[in-house]
């Protein structure tokens, strides 16, 4: 078993490449990367915007006859119920204040004009993808198990609506809560990975 992260264009060692600001394009890219791996079975995990990408990736793989073994989504409303869609249009100071309020931005990064200038296009691209995402209205449900992870106190996710993720599959649906609000994935990473692989 191997843990692999998808590296999108415009990030990390692919920083010079054009950004993808469309969930469908990001999912298509993820599928291309996954198909290069020698393994034939995949467990997909996506956090926040990445949850939408993971879901669309699962749909694409299913349509190719390679449905993942399981789909795990975190800190994200169900498809068709996304909120806070205009953040990417906010002026820079408001934009950064909103992101910092979620707790996922290092204060040193937010306080550095150079780092803000470097990261703003990438973050706006991500949030533009979130804002423009629309799930396919005729998409058939998956059949693989779907697990939802919710951070207690997450200000951008309505916990009462998360059970609606069950509609994206005919398979088993589970949901669990963890401390840490929107960025709960940064606390007890080993425990989260173990839970994803054990369910």
Automatic annotation (TrEMBL):
Pfam families: Thioesterase
InterPro entries for this protein: AB_hydrolase_fold, TEII, Thioesterase
Gene Ontology biological process terms, A to Z: lipid biosynthetic process
Domain Thioesterase: 2-187
Superkingdom field: Bacteria
Gene3D superfamilies: alpha/beta hydrolase
Family in the record: Belongs to the thioesterase family.
Official protein name in the record: Thioesterase
Organism: uncultured bacterium esnapd7
């Amino acid at each position: 078993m191997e843990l692999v992260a998808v590296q999108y264009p415009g990030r990390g060692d692919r920083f010079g490449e054009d950004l993808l600001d469309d969930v469908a394009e990001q999912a298509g890219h993820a599928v291309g990367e996954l198909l290069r791996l020698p393994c034939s079975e995949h467990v997909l995990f996506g956090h926040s915007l990445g949850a939408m990408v993971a879901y669309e990736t699962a749909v694409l793989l299913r349509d190719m006859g390679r449905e993942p073994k399981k789909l795990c989504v975190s800190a994200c409303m169900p498809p068709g119920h996304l909120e806070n869609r205009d953040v990417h249009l906010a002026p820079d100071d408001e934009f950064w204040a909103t992101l910092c309020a979620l707790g996922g931005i290092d204060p040193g990064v937010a306080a550095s004009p150079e780092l803000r200038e470097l990261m703003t296009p990438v973050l706006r691209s991500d949030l533009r993808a979130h804002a423009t995402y629309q799930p396919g209205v005729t998409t058939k449900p998956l059949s693989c198990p779907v697990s939802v992870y919710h951070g207690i106190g997450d200000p951008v996710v309505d916990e009462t609506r998360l059970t609606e993720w069950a509609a994206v599959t005919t398979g088993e649906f589970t949901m669990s809560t963890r401390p840490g609000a929107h960025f709960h994935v940064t606390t007890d990473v080993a425990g989260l990975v173990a839970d994803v692989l054990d369910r």
